């Protein structure tokens, strides 16, 4: 292995300086620590643990602290060994993912769209606002829009047949070394299959219809940074291939194993590295292990009164390390920023050693920012183990909203003006007419916040919306956050701008409903697959002056390609603007078609998606705004970042990982 031994690096934790004494804000640190250790004090053990975590954040290298170096800088392994006060907090997603997650579809086992005995669509389970509700219009929408019919149903395999799974090939010498580390691992077929894929259409299709040619041979669960160091050392020693696994929500084929990889493939599952190691209230940062998933992170920070505000639509399942590795973007980026704006410090274990900055500062002018080699590296350079991220006090007030525009063009013009005036709410999303109609299809039977948008509009429609064509209008949903008074002022400013573009305020409920649907929409693809409908979403970013043309051209291209490829039913081709910036916007496309009569639907689908991507690039859009490149889009990397740019990335890879230990073959 080249360079310095990586284990030596794990002690090089950057000092963090906190200038005020923690007791000034928190009363007696000693008393709180004693409370935590004794498991007593106000409330139960968890609040005491939380308090200790906050205090340890304050104590990181505090000049006031007289503790010797080793005591001042807690390493994760020390924290873990710290007894009752630092018991790992269980993740919502268990180590054995199969206990609650689907093996061949999206999300929780108990949550899915089905058609019940009466032939009505229903969303099962109890986890979401839509759970247990009947959706009387969905069936008709699927029939009309996609030509789907209940008579044409596919029954996919209910269970994973382990005899279909490729055998695990791991050499005994490596296993012996691994056992000596006492790090948890599994060679069971189910564990390996669960980590062999993300959530691209073709991956889910393979699971439903067959099996991957190549999957990880072994899953290893490090418990902390030092464990990762040991695993990477062993991988270098035995020449293995490591694929880091976070939440498994990749939509770029990033987790798929290269079919011709002959070395043992290790899926390094970060899920057991999921602790908030400290919270620093003075600098509003938190130092967190990279395997924590979004919902756990926000819940746990919330218990201490903080949030990161990073909310990708996949936040129920995706991990902090995954966000860093893919350069993720959350829906509230207007206030909190994208992952690159949120990250203060990253620690990554590579075959060459541990890479991290020497201090935790807001900005440095020390050549190109090394974080930008790490962010977006998609598991090709190493494993992100710990991240210091900005936190903010939980906002005092949240308010949803919505605006109806006579057409998409007016809506985009309004979003552009809001961006120009730099007054975008935490989230602002504009859906086109097809998605607006689709929202109606998800109307549940019961009267609630989910009352159809169209219903909600009826009474206005006759009066205010005269002149709005229901087949043209489009809707923006809004989410404001902050101090109550400021939110109300902000809201007025945004609605005033909207009015100049013919937009009419359409109520808080309609806005809230839009955001509530965010998490259940991902479950719809599995329902479609049961009825010969395949679908996918993909995204891009584009300068403002090209948004309208790009949206129109890409949607039309999809329709045209479907026809040319022999798709017998009209496709669903729709888009929304999901993020806005000074210089442009992020656009998300949804696309689905009924493949009855087509023998190789995935091949046809991939040809159409490729054509859509070509169209995006021809219209000045980016290869990706936040989904990343993976293996799915790497054919366009050279064209996207230039020959020289690609060469630079290659030389970084060559230096950091000359033996291609991180051999998932993403990006390059
Ligand atoms: C329904 C749905 C909605 C989505 N919405 C959004 C969204 O709003 N915004 C957004 O940005 N993305 C979104 N995505 C895409 C996906 O959630 C992101 O790419 C996410 O950041 C992946 O995180 P993960 O933990 O699931 O990573 P994984 O899928 O496990 O891995 C993704 C890649 O990162 C690497 N990796 C993971 N963890 C580490 C680590 N600790 N160190 C080094 N490499 C690592 C893997 O090797 C792989 O190459 C969505 C996906 C789905 C299916």
From TrEMBL:
What is annotated about its quaternary structure and interactions?
Homodimer.
Q: What is the lineage of its organism?
A: Eukaryota, Metazoa, Chordata, Craniata, Vertebrata
Give the keywords, sorted.
Acetylation, FAD, Flavoprotein, Lipid biosynthesis, Lipid metabolism, Membrane, Peroxisome, Phosphoprotein, Transferase, Transit peptide
Q: What is this protein called?
A: Alkylglycerone-phosphate synthase
Superkingdom of the source?
A: Eukaryota
Q: Which GO terms describe its molecular function?
A: alkylglycerone-phosphate synthase activity; FAD binding
Give the metabolic or biological pathway: Lipid metabolism; Glycerolipid metabolism; ether lipid biosynthesis
Give a Gene Ontology cellular component term annotated to this protein. peroxisomal membrane
Where the record annotates domain FAD-binding PCMH-type, the positions are: 212-394
Q: What does it catalyze?
A: 1-hexadecanoylglycerone 3-phosphate + a long-chain fatty acid = a 1-acylglycerone 3-phosphate + hexadecanoate; a long chain fatty alcohol + a 1-acylglycerone 3-phosphate = a 1-O-alkylglycerone 3-phosphate + a long-chain fatty acid + H(+); hexadecan-1-ol + 1-hexadecanoylglycerone 3-phosphate = 1-O-hexadecylglycerone 3-phosphate + hexadecanoate + H(+)
Purpose: Catalyzes the exchange of an acyl for a long-chain alkyl group and the formation of the ether bond in the biosynthesis of ether phospholipids.
Q: Where is this region: Disordered?
A: 1-49
What EC designation does it have? Answer: 2.5.1.26
The positions annotated as site (Important for enzyme activity) read 429
What cofactor does this one take?
FAD
Check the record and name the InterPro entries matching this protein.
Alkyl-DHAP_Synthase (IPR025650), FAD-bd_oxidored_4_C (IPR004113), FAD-bd_PCMH (IPR016166), FAD-bd_PCMH-like_sf (IPR036318), FAD-bd_PCMH_sub1 (IPR016167), FAD-bd_PCMH_sub2 (IPR016169), FAD-linked_Oxase-like_C (IPR016164), Oxid_FAD_bind_N (IPR006094)
What residues does substrate bind to?
Answer: 525
- Indicate where this protein resides in the cell: Peroxisome membrane
Q: Which SUPFAM superfamilies match?
A: FAD-binding/transporter-associated domain-like (SSF56176), FAD-linked oxidases, C-terminal domain (SSF55103)
List all Low complexity biased stretches: 22-39
Which family is this sequence assigned to?
Belongs to the FAD-binding oxidoreductase/transferase type 4 family.
């Amino acid at each position: 292995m080249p360079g310095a031994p990586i284990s030596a690096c794990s002690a090089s934790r950057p000092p963090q300086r906190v200038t005020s004494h923690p007791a000034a804000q928190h009363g007696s640190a000693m008393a709180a620590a004693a409370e935590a250790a004794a498991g007593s004090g106000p409330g139960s053990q968890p609040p005491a643990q939380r308090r200790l975590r906050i205090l340890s954040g304050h104590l990181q290298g505090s000049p006031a602290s007289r503790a010797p170096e080793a005591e001042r800088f807690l390493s994760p392994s020390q924290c873990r060994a710290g007894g009752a006060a630092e018991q790992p907090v269980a993740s919502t997603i268990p180590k054995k993912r199969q206990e609650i997650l689907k093996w061949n579809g999206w999300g929780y086992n108990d949550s899915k769209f089905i058609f019940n005995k009466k032939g009505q669509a229903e969303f099962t389970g109890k986890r979401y606002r839509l759970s247990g509700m009947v959706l009387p219009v969905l069936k008709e929408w699927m029939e009309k829009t996609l030509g789907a019919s209940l008579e044409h149903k596919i029954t996919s395999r209910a269970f994973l047949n382990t005899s279909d799974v490729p055998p695990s090939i791991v050499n005994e010498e490596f296993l012996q070394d691994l056992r000596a580390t006492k790090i948890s691992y599994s060679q069971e077929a189910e564990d390996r299959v669960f980590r062999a894929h993300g959530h691209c259409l073709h991956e889910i299709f393979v699971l439903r219809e067959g099996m991957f040619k190549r999957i990880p041979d072994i899953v290893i669960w490090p418990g902390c940074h030092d464990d990762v160091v040991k695993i990477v050392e062993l991988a270098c020693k035995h020449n293995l291939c490591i694929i880091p696994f976070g939440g498994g929500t990749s939509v770029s084929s990033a987790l798929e194993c290269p079919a011709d990889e002959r070395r043992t493939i290790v899926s390094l599952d970060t899920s057991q590295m999921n602790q908030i190691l400290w919270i620093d209230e003075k600098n509003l940062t938190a130092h967190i292990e990279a395997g924590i998933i979004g919902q756990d992170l926000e819940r746990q920070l919330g218990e201490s009164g903080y949030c990161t505000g990073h909310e990708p639509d996949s936040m129920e399942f995706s991990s902090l390390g995954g966000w860093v590795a893919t350069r993720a973007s959350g829906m509230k980026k207007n206030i909190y920023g994208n992952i690159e704006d949120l990250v203060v410090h990253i620690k990554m274990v590579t075959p060459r050693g541990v890479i991290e900055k020497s201090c935790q500062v807001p900005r440095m002018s020390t050549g190109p920012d090394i974080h930008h080699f790490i962010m977006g590296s998609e598991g090709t350079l190493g494993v992100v183990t710990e991240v210091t991220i900005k936190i903010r006090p939980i906002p005092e007030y949240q308010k949803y909203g919505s605006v109806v525009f006579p057409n998409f063009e007016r809506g985009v013009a309004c979003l552009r003006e809001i961006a120009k005036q730099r007054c975008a709410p935490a989230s602002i999303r504009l859906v086109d007419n097809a998605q607006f109609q689709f929202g109606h299809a998800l109307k549940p039977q019961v009267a609630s916040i989910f009352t159809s948008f169209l219903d909600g509009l009826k009474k206005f429609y006759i009066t205010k919306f005269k002149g709005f064509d229901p087949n043209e209008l489009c809707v923006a949903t809004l989410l404001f956050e902050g101090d109550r008074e400021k939110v109300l002022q902000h809201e007025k400013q945004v609605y005033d701008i909207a009015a100049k573009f013919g937009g009419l305020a359409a109520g808080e409920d309609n806005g809230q409903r839009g955001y509530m649907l965010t998490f259940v929409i991902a479950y719809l693809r599995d329902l479609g697959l049961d009825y010969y409908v395949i679908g996918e979403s993909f995204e891009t970013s584009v300068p403002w002056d090209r948004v309208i043309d790009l949206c129109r051209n890409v949607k039309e291209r999809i329709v045209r390609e479907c026809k040319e490829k022999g798709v017998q039913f009209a496709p669903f081709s729709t888009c929304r603007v999901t993020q806005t910036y000074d210089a442009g916007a992020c656009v998300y496309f949804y696309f689905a078609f009924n493949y009855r009569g087509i023998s190789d639907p995935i091949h046809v689908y991939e040809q159409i998606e490729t054509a859509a991507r070509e169209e995006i690039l021809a219209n000045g859009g980016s290869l990706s705004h936040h989904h990343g490149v993976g293996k799915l889009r790497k054919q366009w990397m050279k064209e996207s970042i230039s020959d020289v740019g690609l060469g630079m990335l290659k030389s970084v890879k060559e230096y950091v990982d000359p033996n291609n230990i991180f051999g998932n073959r993403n990006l390059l």
